[in-house]
Amino acid sequence: MALLNMFRSKPEEKAPESRDLSGLLEGFSIEVMPRTAAKIDDFRSLLPQGTRVYIAHIDGTPIDDMVATAKRLTDDGFVAMPHIPARLIPNRATLEDWVNRYHNDAGVEQALLLGGGLANPIGELESSMHLIETGLFDRYGFKRLHVAGHPEGNKDIDPDGTTKAVDDALKFKQVYSENTDAKLAIVTQFSFDPKPVITWAERIAAAGVKMPIHLGIAGPTKLQTLIKFALSCGVGASISVLQKRALDLSKLLVPYEPTEFLSEIAAYRAANPASLIEQIHVFPLGGILPSAEYMRQRLPAVNLSA
Questions:
Q1: Is the dihedral of CA 27, 33, 36, 42 positive or negative?
Q2: Which SS3 state, helix, strand or coil, does residue 240 take?
Q3: Which of 60, 86, 119, 140 is most buried when burial is the number of CB atoms within 10 A of its CB?
Q4: Which whole number is the average pLDDT over 291-303?
């Protein structure tokens, strides 16, 4: 009986799930890895024409696989945006080889610049700022560069629990954005609670950051899978939303969907049209097929290539 009481759901205010999300979701981007992309027969049957597709560069992924995936997506009419993880790159010469191959072999003109997942760099490059300082992306004519945002902080960058280092990095990138022809934007880690996201967006705007925010969300997936990814990716304060959901048996048995989160963000953006929050970026943690279908259902005017 005590166990049943533990999982008994408590009455709570229901989020406005009926809100039209099409304006917020229009132009969304999504993420793949080369090994997961290889399992998709035809992206054109899944994603709207011209969708920006980030290509995650995980430690151990051969650059040949990254370039081949980028070329496939570009050839199919999508905008390929490979991750460039500084800490996985041994030296500037290797970085230039990668940038050259992406640009000349795969037609890539956009990239997400990251520190990377390693605790220690394998070479001389350590951060997205180091990547920017090489000048290679300007030299090869990249038209758009994205950088990472951390609404809930990042203990790897700020181990003291403050946000000083990540804030300073954003200010550096804001200055760079004002002195380059490339368009810059911030893409964030996924989150589950809109409140810290909104607070962060307002705080960086007040500090002088003007780069638009592409807000990360987790696509539909099992709650257990989501909690595993949240813990491994360092999602902080908003993980309490998942913990609360895990205590509600009615929600524990159905896949997580980001509708409540998106509805609150859509309402905030409608009331604050000058917000830096511009677009949505999907992390398809439960697989690209469920995420693509979820987005299609909420974008009735989707124009697929195939």
A1: positive
A2: helix
A3: 86
A4: 84
**Strand stretches in the chain, DSSP E:** 29-32, 52-55, 79-85, 110-114, 144-149, 183-188, 213-218, 277-283
| Helix, coil or strand: residue 284 | coil
pTM of the model: 0.86
> CA gyration radius for the chain?
20
Neighbours of 116 (CB within 10 A): 22
Residue ranges of the domains in the chain? 21-297
How far, in Å, CA of 55 to CA of 80, rounded? 7
Q: Please name the residues in contact with 162: beta carbons below 8 A apart, sequence gap of 6 or more.
A: 153
Residues belonging to the chain: 306
Task: Determine the Cα–Cα distance for residues 235 and 227; give it in Å rounded to an integer.
Answer: 9
CA atoms of 27 and 51, how far apart (whole Å): 7
Q: 97, 95, 82, 150: which is closest to 121 by C-alpha?
A: 95
Distances in Å between the alpha carbon of 172 and those of 132, 136, 202, 268, 271? Answer: 10, 17, 18, 28, 29
Name residue 38's amino acid: A
As beta bridge partners, residue 279 has 214
Token code pair at residue 200: 């962060």
Range list of β-strands (E), 150-253: 183-188, 213-218
CATH code of the domain made up of 21-297:
3.20.20.220
pLDDT at 159 over 80: no
Q: Which H/E stretch holds residue 56?
A: none
CA dist 100 and 107 (Å) reads 10
Q: Which position has the token pair 């992206």?
A: 43
At 11 the pLDDT is 39
> Which residues contact residue 57 at a Cβ distance below 8 angstroms, ignoring those fewer than 6 apart?
66, 82, 83, 84, 85, 88
Query: What is the C-alpha to C-alpha distance for residues 104 and 71, in angstroms, rounded to an integer?
Result: 10
Name the strand (E) or helix (H) holding 11: none
